[in-house]
Amino acid sequence: MMDARLDRMWSLLAVAVGALAAVVALHSDDLQFAVLFLLIQGAVFGFARPAGAWRWALLIAVCIPLSLLLNLAVSFPSPRELSGAARLFVAPLIVFFRSTSPVSAGGVIASGMSVVPALSGAYIGAWMSRIAARPLDS
Whole-angstrom Cα distance, residue 27 to residue 134? Predict the structure, then answer.
């Protein structure tokens, strides 16, 4: 019972980190920074929870194509066009999840490759966890 709750908590945390990765990917012109972010976060989750490391990588990496797909499907207004409470509560979300450059369908499909650095990081982290768990030979 406790293990299932712990897995749900880690899953929610992975989705939150994935949303942060999506914001980084949407607002960064440098692809290398987003790839490094995915690699490091995958390694952290793989080290912390090595069983099923692929789950953490997928939960983190899937947020990038989903955010691009959202930008392709929905036309976000400018935060300056909002008024009242919408400007206070919705404008920060629009600023975070609105792409700074035009999004194409090819870009959404290509962003599926974000799974590769996340999976690499998750399995590197799982490997490091197993090495750290070994007793030292005296």
Answer: 41
How many other CB atoms sit within 10 Å of the CB of residue 1? Answer: 5
CB 47 within 8 A of CB 38: no
**Residue located via tokens 């019972």:** 1
pTM of the model: 0.84
Measured between alpha carbons, how far is residue 92 from residues 16, 76, 89, 98 in Å? Answer: 16, 12, 7, 10
pLDDT digits (tens), the chain, 138 positions: 678 888 899 999 999 999 999 999 888 878 889 899 999 999 999 999 998 899 999 999 999 999 999 988 888 788 788 888 888 888 888 888 888 888 888 888 988 999 999 999 999 999 999 999 888 775
Query: Which residue, among 72, 57, 91, has the nearest Cα to 26 in the 3D structure?
Result: 72
